Protein: TspO and MBR related proteins
Amino acid sequence: MKANRKLVLSILLPILVGSLASIPTSRNVRNWYVTINKPGFNPPNWLFAPVWTTLYVIMGISLYCIWKLPASVTRNNALKLFMAQLALNFLWSFLFFEFHLIAWALVDIILLLLFIILCIAGFSRISRVSAWLLVPYLAWVSFATALNYTIYKLN
Structure:
């Protein structure tokens, strides 16, 4: 596959996953989400879409940096870790917003954090740039974990 096509697909994949995960979010953010108790550090709703869009693009660039490398066990394992964390990312929106399972969403996001760390470690073995590109994502999900935990405690 040509490099340009890999780059486009690498960026589109996280954006597509994020777009699909935003469906339950957008359906519930204006009704259910406004009814639950939230901490004072809860960001305004308008902030989430631009932050996630930016993170998904950066994740895609990071993915491309790994995918473009020659196939190897290390590269393929790193790609599997990326896909695992992306699946956990996708699942969280459904657990939290669609099904209102705040505790299960917390379990999911803790696993997501773990898999992001594993992904960064796997990426760093073959591309430091790719690993560093995931650090803002790790930071945001760490914040989201604290938010999820606090919402769980408040409700």
